Amino acid sequence: MSNTYKHDDFVNEPMRSKRVTDLPGIGETYGDRLHRRGYRNARQVFGEYLAMGGNKREFREFLSETTGANSRQTRDCYEAMRRWDRNFM
Q1: Could you say which of 68, 73, 81, 85 has the lowest number of CB atoms within 10 Å?
Q2: What are the pLDDT digits (tens) for 24-80?
């Protein structure tokens, strides 16, 4: 699991209106790709996570296909989603 400040900030605060670039593993380039696909905020990406039932393989595949993110980046984002889900749902 990622121990970055970005990860800690994300998983320990309510989602509210966080941007897609607030997601661990998602920087400006991948955030722009998500935005062009209609994902304007982190909550919408979390909706995909929930729609997939939190399935690790499916969610990471979705991120990789949507953004081109590598395995470390998709893992970081998945782990943040999983932990946020556990903390707030």
Answers
A1: 68
A2: 999 999 999 999 999 999 999 999 999 999 999 999 999 999 999 999 999 999 999
* CATH class of the domain defined by 5-88: mainly alpha
Distance CA 55, CA 69 (A): 17
Residue recorded with tokens 């499916």: 58
Question: Which DSSP state fits 20?
Answer: G
* Token duo for residue 12: 């320990």
Q: Which residues contact 28 (CB under 8 A, 6 or more apart)?
A: 21
Secondary structure (DSSP) of 28-39: HHHHHHHHHTT-
Token pair listed for 44: 């919408």
Cα–Cα distance, 88 to 67 (Å, whole number): 26
d(CA 54, CA 58): 8
Element containing residue 42 per DSSP (H, E)? helix 42-51
Q: Encoding tokens for residue 77?
A: 């984002």
